[in-house]
Every structure is written in structure tokens, then in C-alpha cells.
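Trying the structure run again after the queue cleared.
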Amino acid sequence: MSQPEEKPQGDPWHAFGYVVAGVAFYGFLGWLADRWLGTTFLVAVGILAGAALGIYMTAKRFRTMPPGSPDSPHSPKPDSTDEQ
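Done. C-alpha cells:
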């Protein structure tokens, strides 16, 4: 029998939330740094960094692993007891 295809866990709204929260948080930090340093470009850097980190977190959360990989939750665990 073949194993059913593993689907990503989670809600798509979580992915949207990661990206929006990253843009808002790091954009705000960039805006604060702009006000403090008297520059005008750090808000854009913060927005881009927040979007990149939000996409990274989304990819990390929704990544699927092949069934045979050691980190996969469906991979067989080695027996810890050796009775001889």
C-alpha cells in the first residue's frame, strides 16, 4: 500500500499573518530608526527585511519532509531497548 501524501499543517491565514506582521514590525522599527538617525531609507529596509523574514517563517512552518528523512514525524524510530 502506498502512503497518503503528507499535506502541510496549518492555516493559510497563519502564512498571511507572518508576512503582514513581519512587514508591520520591521517597518515600524525602520521608521523609528529613521526618526532617531534622521535618515529616510531605513523604513524601506525594514519593510523588505520583514517581508523576507515573514516568507522565511512561512516556508519553515509549511515545509513538508520526505517520509524517509530522519526529521520526518512519520519516519520509524529506532528501538531504544536492546534485549538479548
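The radius of gyration is 21 Å. Worth checking whether this holds up in the mutant runs.
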